[in-house]
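This part of the workshop introduces the protein records we will be handling. To make this concrete, we reproduce a full record directly below.
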Amino acid sequence: MSSTTQRSTGVTPEPPSGLARFNTADDSTARAVLHEVCASRAWGSKVLARRPYATTDALFAASDAAMAELTAEDLAEAMAGHPPIGRPKPGDPTSSREQSGMAGASDELKTEMLELNLAYQEKFGHVFLICASGRTGEQMRDAVRNRIDNTPEQEREIVRVELGKINRIRLTRIAEHAEGDAA
């Protein structure tokens, strides 16, 4: 149905099946789903409070608004849910999928990333966070090299943007997830 037809008839499309399930899930279940997207309780509470969502774009807008409101402490909580680049969470297919660019990296590159991750963590007090989906190991290495000279304030805002990108990817999987499919 075209958007013109939608306007003239007043009919709105049904949300994707996963989004419909998310909208109707009890708060405890929905909160657990959101925690898998982002470990920040403040972010999860803000996104949860705006249900139901008519579209994935509305869910994205709520996620982006919630991310923009997070304090430094909330961002630290969100980052704590992410493993270092090059070491996805064992048994977590989402983490492995998102970091697949490091899977085929040479031992030399993996060692360099470990060293850069440690230097970054020493300077900023948290893991290097980047939306790794679709990036090669070399691109991630170059990003940490470029960002290590940032100020903590600059880096906090970059992390906020990167978390927002990660959240959108994960929310898309939830919204499009059909009953019985693996998200």
Observations:
- The CA atoms of residues 68 and 157 lie 9 Å apart.
- The chain has one domain: 14-176.
